[in-house]
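User: My collaborator sent over this chain with a note saying "see what the structure looks like." That's all I know about it. Can you take a look?
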Amino acid sequence: YYFLLNRQGIKMHYVEKGDPKNKLVVFVHGFPEFWYSWRYQLKEFSKDYWTIAIDQRGYGESDKPGNISDYHIDKMSDDIHALVKSLGKYKKGK
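Assistant: Without extra context I'll predict from the sequence alone. Here is the result:
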């Protein structure tokens, strides 16, 4: 699946498993990996949760912006926040 971050124009790739009615768990990889690092956890945790593993910007099938500033931690955390919000799982104050 792909999610377009409208305000930044970045396409983020993610894989999901489990029931969207369940609580959400988002798996975020480190350097130099991508969503596939979480394949076993997706399988296990999807029994009780809706699991999503992302390709962060610059990795896997997600867009790869050209400027170093596009990889600032604030932008990368905003990506995850926007994804969770778009999936209807964001609750203010939680």
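A starting point for your reply to your collaborator: The radius of gyration is 13 Å.
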